[in-house]
Write a structure and sequence with these properties.
Rossmann fold, 7-stranded mixed sheet, about 30% helix, single chain, globular, 6-stranded parallel sheet, alpha/beta, Dihydrodipicolinate Reductase, domain 2
Length: about 350
């Protein structure tokens, strides 16, 4: 497959390149970048020295559509929506790593992202690319909305218990931590070493843009509108997301019954690992891989359950999931190019 990447010089784009260099069925034909046009790709990411000799091109999606079987847009919100059209989609498939097509209600998107949506006519067609839940729809798609990092970890951690009516959906509280790569590669004071190192902070409290995305996906599982509390935190690490979620139980239930629910959904899933009893997920156990580790703990004293998940925000939270979607879209084995063992330590 001929692959084009627009936004190849950001963190998610760089991770796409790393993964696709080891993909047996993919050839990258376009390294798109606004900031580094005509610069050698390895000059932007020196880890690619003597691996990638190509020069960075621009972000001309129409020209790229003539060459590529699939386009990844690892770009800021608004870019893909402003560029995509029927002519492009008739020639190539798109996996969009931004939020442009994740949320089905255009007014909700515009309210949370504070920008007008430039191509709402494609929102209904776009498939939300959480493979473990929407696998069959992804296989038929020509436009996939790659989920956000927090929503991926949160949804996979919580979804089975909402779907099976184990918890009361509107009691869900999500406490999440992310490494600094989740904020992107752009220069920001808040991301300077002296600001991040030896520090932890909450941000986007009650306003984070991933909130409606998580609510929408859990709402599909519940069959009704779901409202949650979601608070993300910045952690002093490069990669990783750790989600700790809390909810009230809808009925009395045992550990074995809850474990059976998780196994029902994930026992045959390559990339979701349900850990053994009392083992709490850790970001180090999934770093550099496409795995999501999940587990739970019942708290009879409060009649609540604590649900936990950990994953690499740049792999399963972005580039790895995008490649997983691509594999499904082109009829390949879903794990092709994604079998990297997590790095430790």
């Amino acid at each position: 497959m001929k692959v084009g990447i627009i936004g190849a010089t950001g963190y998610a784009g760089g991770e796409l390149v790393r993964l696709l260099m080891g993909h047996p069925e993919a050839e990258i034909v376009w390294y798109g970048s606004r900031s580094y046009i005509d610069k050698k790709y390895y000059e932007v990411f020196q880890n690619m020295f003597q691996i990638v000799e190509d020069t960075c091109l621009d972000d001309n999606m129409e020209a790229l559509a003539e060459q590529a079987d699939v386009i990844f847009t690892a770009t800021p919100q608004g870019f893909c929506a402003s560029m995509v059209n029927e002519k492009i989609l008739s020639k190539t498939k798109i996996v969009d790593l931004s939020a442009d097509f994740r949320i089905k209600d255009v007014h909700t998107y515009e309210e949370w992202y504070k920008i007008p949506h430039k191509s709402p006519q494609f929102i209904e067609e776009a498939v939300y690319g959480l493979c473990e839940i929407n696998r069959e729809e992804v296989k038929k798609a020509r436009l996939v909305a790659n989920p956000g990092c927090y929503p991926t970890c949160s949804t996979l951690t919580i979804y089975p218990l909402v779907k099976e009516g184990i918890i009361q959906p509107n009691t869900i509280i999500i406490d999440a931590k992310s490494g600094t790569s989740g904020a992107g590669r752009g220069a920001k004071v808040d991301n300077l070493y002296c600001e991040v190192n030896e520090n932890m902070k909450a941000y986007g409290v009650a306003t984070h843009r991933h909130t409606p995305e998580i609510e929408e996906q859990l709402g599909y599982a519940a069959g009704e509108k779901v409202t949650i509390n979601f608070t993300p935190h910045l952690a002093p690490m490069n990669r990783g997301i750790l989600v700790t979620a809390y909810a009230s139980l809808a009925k009395e239930i045992s550990y074995e019954e809850v474990k059976a629910v998780y196994d029902k959904y994930y026992q045959k899933e390559k990339f979701v690992r349900v850990l053994e009893r009392d083992v709490c997920p850790q970001t180090k156990w999934v770093e550099g891989s496409n795995f999501v580790d999940v587990n739970f703990k019942l708290d009879p004293r409060t009649n609540r359950i604590i649900m936990m998940g950990a994953m690499d925000n740049l792999v399963k939270g972005a580039a790895g999931q995008a490649v997983q979607n691509m594999n499904l879209m082109f009829g390949l084995e879903e794990s092709t190019g994604l079998c990297q063992v997590p790095m430790f330590p």
